């Protein structure tokens, strides 16, 4: 009850706060009253602006005899108005203030306002070079962080093989289901569609030469060597890579990773290793299934658009495919999976304590992973061509 009465009294004093202007000779006197506090700063500024409209080019004097309360914000409003008057070449003074109020005003009046210097802008001709420098520095930092994380992951894997750390099979099975098995439908669908599109366009170009049958060789080699793996890797990077980054980033935001370290649990063994193993073992499976689905799409389009019967297609497929073609895709798949997992985990550990940071690093994870997958595929293609494999 007493608190309610006190709050009512404060509100009443605040409602009485005012600034009334009157003229004494050539001086404009602004009589202040009530509580000049930060809680009512907006209203007090409005009252002060109304009182100072009649100042013109005259001296100014503030009468604080009836001011009941004054804090730093209220005093700063008065000091700022006095400085504006002095900047116009007319004096400004304070009268009737109590000793504490006078000391506060004097202290604020003795403080010179400082404006932070604006940093010089980058010359227009140097903007591209500055942007390029930032890209290079960020790329170098990402490379260093990725190598450090790769070492931690390999150390965790070595500890698990040496029975010095837990391998956590249930976590691996769960991640394998999320990353590989649940991705089978979308990989099959996209591979069938892409295989059908490639076959349709190939038949369109080969038909004038009467060479539709070679679409079998083209589809089989493309799907098993390049396209099937590339589609599966891109889908995994966008689907599972983003999920890994978001999961690890959310754990960073809630300090769950720090809690694991406090409990003596290695986050790389508990969180990263199961996901990395699921990626490395799951992507070859997805690439193989996607390649088979692409071949199925090729067979259907070749039959109904190119007039190639299924039995002829299968006979030609046996001649076009060999173990070398199959192994090219299976060799590249674990490397691409490791790259995807490395980038996803690295970006997840960079997340700071905001949702904006989580979204930014998740986006960066997907973009970087897809870019590196395409670059790695190109490097593998050049390497295999050079060694004749």
TrEMBL record:
InterPro entries cross-referenced by the UniProt entry: ABC_MlaE_roteobac, MlaB-like_STAS, Permease_MalE, STAS_dom, STAS_dom_sf
Bilayer-crossing regions: 176-198, 218-238, 277-305, 325-345, 366-387
Origin: domain of life: Bacteria
The keyword Repeat is assigned to this record: no
Species of provenance: Devosia nitrariae
Assigned protein family: Belongs to the MlaE permease family.
PANTHER family, sorted: ABC TRANSPORTER PERMEASE (PTHR30188:SF3), ABC TRANSPORTER PERMEASE PROTEIN-RELATED (PTHR30188)
Protein's name according to its UniProt entry: ABC transporter permease
Span of domain STAS: 17-115
Signal peptide start-end: none
Membrane topology, from the record: Multi-pass membrane protein
Physiological role: Could be part of an ABC transporter complex.
Cellular localization per UniProt: Cell inner membrane
Pfam family name, one: MlaE
Record's keyword terms, sorted: Cell inner membrane, Cell membrane, Membrane, Transmembrane, Transmembrane helix
Predominant cellular place of this UniProt entry's protein: membrane
CDD domains: STAS_anti-anti-sigma_factors
């Amino acid at each position: 009850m007493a608190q309610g009465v006190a709050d009512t009294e404060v509100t009443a004093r605040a409602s009485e706060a005012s600034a009334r202007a009157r003229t004494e000779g050539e001086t404009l006197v602004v009589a202040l009253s009530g509580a000049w506090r930060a809680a009512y700063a907006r209203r007090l500024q409005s009252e002060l602006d109304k009182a100072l409209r009649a100042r013109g080019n005259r001296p100014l004097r503030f009468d604080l005899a009836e001011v009941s309360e004054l804090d730093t914000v209220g005093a700063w409003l008065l000091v700022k108005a006095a400085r504006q008057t002095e900047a116009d070449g007319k004096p400004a003074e304070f009268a009737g203030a109590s000793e504490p109020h006078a000391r506060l005003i004097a202290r604020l009046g003795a403080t010179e306002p400082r404006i932070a210097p604006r940093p010089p802008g980058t010359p227009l001709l140097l903007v591209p070079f500055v942007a390029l420098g930032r890209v290079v520095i960020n790329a170098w930092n990402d490379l260093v962080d990725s190598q450090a994380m790769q070492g931690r992951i390999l150390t965790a894997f070595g500890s698990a093989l040496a029975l010095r750390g837990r391998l956590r099979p249930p976590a691996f099975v769960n991640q394998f289901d999320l990353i590989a098995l649940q991705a089978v439908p979308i990989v099959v669908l996209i591979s069938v569609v892409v295989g059908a599109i490639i076959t349709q366009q190939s038949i369109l170009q080969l038909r004038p030469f009467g060479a539709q049958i070679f679409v079998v060789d083209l589809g089989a080699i493309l799907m098993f060597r390049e396209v099937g793996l590339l589609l599966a890797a891109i889908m995994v990077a966008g689907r599972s890579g983003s999920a890994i980054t978001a999961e690890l980033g959310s754990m960073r935001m809630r300090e769950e990773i720090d809690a694991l370290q406090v409990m003596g649990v290695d986050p790389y063994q508990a969180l990263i290793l199961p996901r990395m193993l699921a990626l490395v073992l799951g992507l070859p499976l997805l690439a193989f299934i996607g390649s088979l689905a692409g071949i199925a799409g090729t067979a259907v389009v070749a039959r109904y658009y190119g007039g190639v019967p299924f039995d002829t297609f299968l006979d030609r497929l046996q001649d076009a495919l060999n173990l070398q073609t199959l192994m090219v895709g299976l060799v590249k798949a674990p490397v691409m999976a490791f790259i995807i997992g490395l980038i996803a985990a690295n970006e997840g550990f960079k997340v700071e304590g905001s949702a904006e940071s989580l979204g930014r690093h998740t986006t960066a994870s997907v973009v970087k992973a897809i870019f590196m997958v395409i670059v790695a595929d190109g490097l593998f293609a050049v390497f295999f061509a050079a060694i004749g494999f």
